[in-house]
Amino acid sequence: MVHPTVSDVTREILAELPAHRRETFELRLEQWFPDLHDAVTAVYPDPDGVAAGLVDIAARAYAARTEDLHRLDQRRLLEPDWFQQPDMFGYACYVDRYGQTLRGVGERLDHLTDLGVTYLHLMPLLKPRPGDNDGGYAVMDYRAVREDLGTNEDLRTLAETLRGRGISLVVDLVLNHVAREHEWAVKARAGDPKYRDYFLIYPDRTTPDSYERTLPEVFPDFAPGSFTFDDELGEWVWTTFNEWQWDLNWANPAVLQEFASTVLHLANLGVEVLRLDAIAFLWKRLGTNCQNQPEVHAVTQALRATARLAAPATLFKAEAIVGPRDLLPYLGQGRHTGRVSDIAYHNSLMVQVWSMLATGSTALARHALASLPPTPPSGTWVTYVRCHDDIGWAIDDGDAASLGLSGAGHRHFLADWYSGEFDGSWAEGLVFQYNPDTGDRRISGTAAALTGLGPSRLDPDGAFGRIFLSHAIIAGWGGIPVVWSGDELGSPGDPNWADEPARAEDNRWVHRPRVTDADRAGRFEQGSDAQRVFDGIARIAKVRAGLPMLHAEAPVDVQTESDDGLLVVRRRHPSGTLVGLYNVTDDHRPFPHAQLIELGIPAPTEVLSQHDLHVDDTGSVWLPPYAAWWIVDSPRR
Q1: What's the average model confidence in pLDDT over 41-63?
Q2: Which of 277, 428, 459, 487 is the catalytic position?
Q3: Beta-sheet strands, E only, within 333-410
Q4: pLDDT tens digits, residue range 132-144?
Q5: What is the Cα–Cα distance from 257 to 53, expressed in whole angstroms?
Q6: I need a labelling partner for 204 at 20 to 30 A (CA). Which of 15, 175, 490, 543 fits?
Q7: 292-341 confidence digits (pLDDT tens)
Q8: Highest taxon of the source (predicted)?
């Protein structure tokens, strides 16, 4: 029976469907309507009306969904942990910098299949504003693909091709803001009261000044402040990121309904994972930094429940680059457990990997990572060495202080090290967004440039070890490891990144190199940097796929007591135990053989590099510089 609060519209849509389709939707409604109603009740004054409208949107999308996508939904529901399996291995790229167009990406998939990719994140591909558009994150039209990349039909075709290869398509959905040129903003400037209420518009500086007392600046160099005076409006508009990115008013339920429709439009094109961009910023509250507010999680739950009704194969990925204590709620805690995003970025792990490589010490990482609570059973991390963005040194002051360190001092050191300013550094990164008031400096650069395989090749031998080690750590953590485009080939970066005027002030483009057919062919050149890096990362993906201990549900157990140069991580699973031993130094480091037995591995075998575990007279095995060992119990004979 259909829930009594659904509208006549939904009833009419369902009445036109075949009996088995109608029954399926009604069963889903029974299961997920409580989540939907609870979520909108937490944030909107008319929860019944808002929920009914969202069910209408879901019913329309469900009725329009193709047969192959309905079948995908059923497969995903039968295997709800599909994205937590150890064979998940990701790749992220810009369409134009990898294949020029969507069709071009479809013609260049062998490279990804050879790498072991099962999860492909295509960076913003929806129609952006002309000119500067924050790398595509200033969206002008959510219903159209960027014209130079192709069409909606090209996106649908690519999604089908990827599914045929066992690869899930991931696409960005920018939630916090739209481009100033978006139809909603155009109508708001024209005075339409409906669309003015889609944004946060103020007649003078009184309210903006009150908010800005507690708001941090995201881009202090080229977009200071969080509000912009719009000449056409003659008023102030909330613009967290850039003056041409207008923040949306999520307290207006019409905005939620617009995005629910967009989510399902993309899902019906075959998108399997939606990266919810800038999700931490959605809800505004005076006297706070307007990030991580509890209403964000209610909004996400409402969107997710709506998607479950029409397209349950669709996953949500939270792009919440926040402190470690604020991160877990995006995967669900308390009343939102299992009801919000399915996956989230493990920014803290990425930062700690770079910190370990720079210091040759694991003490801070052991403390910080061991203190993180476990992910909920239904969620997991996206882990990564690098992404499209800069690296912000998110070192928690409390974590640093517990080891007698200064958080600010350590952040300063890391910025010095990775910009190459610290004596002895092998890194060639670029400083991004220096804030003289706080001393904050973020870093741009490819994985190769930050490990010693940059343009000057300051330490190529050590660089290869650091590259493989860092990818092994993130792949051995569980979740979904993702490789950023170009890093799989050891790209030192784009030397011509500043040639395009719209990008000349944004040095993040140095680590967004084009990957051409010639670059891909370069990995077949024996002894080349590209071949050596590619083969190493592909080896990690292949071994990982055969280790059930790396299923995301297996708990991560960081050993807090170890040699200062070693990170020791245990993962226990019904199939057995895996211990990851990682040497973050350029020296040989000992590890007690007996401790492997204590950790649950009576007959240890190293499976990643197939290293012979020779035990010396002291009872130790010695890890070579930058070694990454995955140790499991030898199979019984």
Answers
A1: 97
A2: 277
A3: 343-345, 380-384
A4: 898 899 999 999 9
A5: 7
A6: 175
A7: 999 999 999 999 999 999 999 999 999 987 776 788 888 888 888 888 89
A8: Bacteria
